[in-house]
Design goal:
2 copies of one chain form a homodimer. With 366 residues, chain A is of the alpha/beta class. The first copy, chain A, has 15 helices and 12 strands. In chain A, the strands form 2 sheets. The first copy, chain A, has a 6-stranded parallel β-sheet with strand order 2-1-3-4-5-11, with helices on both faces. Chain A has a 6-stranded mixed β-sheet with strand order 7-6-8-9-10-12, sandwiched between helices. Chain B binds a DNA duplex (30 and 30 nucleotides) through helix 3 and helix 5.
Chain lengths: 366, 366
DNA sequence: TCGCTCCACTAATACGTATAAGTAATGCGC
DNA sequence: GCGCATTACTTATACGTATTAGTGGAGCGA
């Protein structure tokens, strides 16, 4: 057989590109093994599906591939197969998570672990890059199509773009409840049940009047907690109503020791704070109680719908629940993998674990 | 013209894939605009290069593209053109930088800013994923080929793989000096000059005996500083030799107040600590001086070859230099962009800025 | 020995884009 | 009115892999 003319100095435009040896492709492996490129693909993709490849040939191909150091081109794989075993993770914070490190990182741990377990590699995209040529517009988001599917983190994910990807059939999973977007898959923590359970716990300790302290934010995570809180009150036969929820844009300013004493005078014996990025609600009740000279499990009970902010991590463990961030990340990957495989998504809610903690007890005798 | 049979329900293997509308490609845009696919590509890639496309046609194509919401497929772009305006960033720490957050993040800020300015988007790869199917081997690194080129961060970058990519002509830049690998491009801080300058400063203040405290690590960043330190001594006509460098695996244990007093008794008036991930060298001298009851600019001078660790950021500003991390990140991107464009790399060293600080002064009178 | 099924492959084609090469149509000098 | 650019495109092909649809035997029953 005559040596093929190897007609491919086409890329030889730029000086550097000229010399590109370029690594071997399947065609080279095939030549070395004396088979066709298709056979190489079949052997390497290891589709046991009616393989119909003799062991001897298979071995020859594998040896050839190894000796040439063949590695597949992920771009070509994606193009040809719509699959390259890469999962994208899109975070809308600039570059790497830093401020939000404490809230995002645990998710990513779960994401990575589960992805690895399922044989996927991760590719991370970031949402900034606004200013460049390829940036800003729809194109910025578009690069996630390099992967088989993509996970989205963060609150500021543009609906329009997501909708578009969903419509295109590109597998997408949002980490966090996101129901307003028809057809979008998501996984989230079951804040409703968990919050409700915290209230049940308080009620079982004998508390009759409980107040929820929350920030002025309408994120699903906040409204879910409030809903669960109110449901818990109702289930325990306690009074709900507007008085049961204290909403403030700046709890640190509004939840004063005075305000606390007033509540207590009104018969409130337990306070429940939501967890947010800032941890302000919890910090505020915590500080107000200390400042008012009230001891925690004795004079009043406190519960936290989530985990304390880092600066309060050293204090007594709050009664409440733990958001299973690792599991959430893992669940998101599982769901994404299902979508990529063409299966339908399953249960999106992950349960939070109740944390007894040390900040609740029976209400004081009056 | 008869409607093309649209022969592409090939992907319809998996249930989900069956319904993939898939977004429009250039072919669709072309049909709508009444031109060929090639024309669409020419218009959209906007190669002013002898474009030879009438304004009217151009506009028709652009309108068609917009109305269909066309966005290019990055995988296809890379495959066809070896360019997709994506730059990869490979970090060898698991998922997102966390421990190393303080040392890596500033680099990334510069990287991202410069990339955006040059019209590149970033794709981030992480080095873990060990355990999955597509992981571990050469293939894990291989996915960076989705991008036009890749930046590598971290000390544990496998040489073999890097060598391979360099040999293949894949544009690669290592962030940090890396000379042992022939042909590998890198950018790094000029620790040698900067360290030398710190010594010159001390010498000009009158110090005659200066000791460098360093950790037991042979990273280029460490050896560079030592080299600059020694060069600085020599330039100032001061004694170098083994006594001038104190090397310890655990400075916190070995640099005691006693040891410090001994040095001073021997005539040493200034100490220079290297900066490392841990900041241990600086923390050790700092603590030892305080414990020995020595006041800093008065009884002895201290200098730091870099920035203090976060926990000491509040103390008096150390004399020394600032590693221009943003600029390093930006320089790395510039170099990578050059390589991608087929140009040759330019100056890899970035100067560090001398920081006068408040921890050095004239040596005490004896 | 014909027809049939397996077996072990190969040929052909598709994925979506970029680009070199080619081709009408027009303009222009002479 | 001919050659020759130039303009404005189109055609054809390549990128590297996956996959479907063959294809040429071998084996086997009748």
């Amino acid at each position: 057989m005559v040596e093929q003319p190897s007609k491919r100095p086409r890329r030889g435009r730029t000086p550097a590109a000229t010399g590109r040896t370029s690594r071997p492709r399947q065609a080279e492996v095939a030549r070395l093994a004396g088979v066709s490129q298709a056979t190489v693909s079949l052997v390497l993709s290891d589709k046991a599906q009616g393989s119909a490849i003799s062991d001897e040939t298979r071995q020859r191909v594998l040896d050839a591939a190894r000796s040439l150091g063949y590695v597949p081109d992920p771009a070509a794989q994606r193009l040809a197969a719509v699959r390259n075993n890469l999962l994208g993770v899109y975070s809308f914070t600039a570059t790497f998570p830093t401020d939000v490190e404490h809230s995002y990182y645990p998710f990513l741990v779960g994401v990575e672990r589960e992805a690895a377990a399922r044989g996927y590699d991760l590719v991370l995209f970031t949402g900034s890059s606004s200013g460049g040529a390829g940036a800003a517009g729809p194109e910025a988001l578009n690069r996630v199509r390099l992967a088989d599917g993509c996970l989205f983190l963060g609150r500021h994910v543009p609906s329009a773009e997501l909708k578009r990807m969903v419509a295109d059939g590109f597998p997408v999973v949002h980490l966090g409840r996101r129901e307003e977007l028809e057809g979008l898959s998501w996984v989230g923590a079951d804040y409703v049940s968990a919050s409700s359970e915290v209230v049940r716990h308080l009620a079982s300790l004998g508390h009759r009047r409980i107040v929820l302290i929350r920030e002025d934010d309408d994120a699903p995570a906040s409204t879910d907690r409030q809903q669960g809180f109110l449901a818990g009150l109702e289930a325990a036969g306690l009074a709900g109503g507007p008085d049961a929820v204290f909403r403030s844009a700046d709890p640190g300013r509004d939840v004063t020791p005075d305000r606390l004493r007033r509540w207590i005078a009104e018969g409130v014996t337990a306070f429940v704070a939501e967890e947010t990025d800032t941890g302000n609600a919890w910090r505020a009740v915590h500080a107000a109680a200390a400042e008012a000279g009230l001891t925690c499990p004795g004079d009043l009970s406190l519960a936290l719908l989530g985990s304390p902010p880092p600066d309060l991590a050293g204090a007594a463990e709050p009664t409440g629940f733990d958001v299973p961030r690792h599991q959430l990340g893992a669940a998101a990957v599982r769901m994404l993998a299902s979508l990529v495989a063409g299966e339908t998504a399953d249960e999106p809610l992950v349960a939070c674990a109740f944390r007894p903690g040390a900040t609740t007890g029976s209400p004081p005798e009056r």
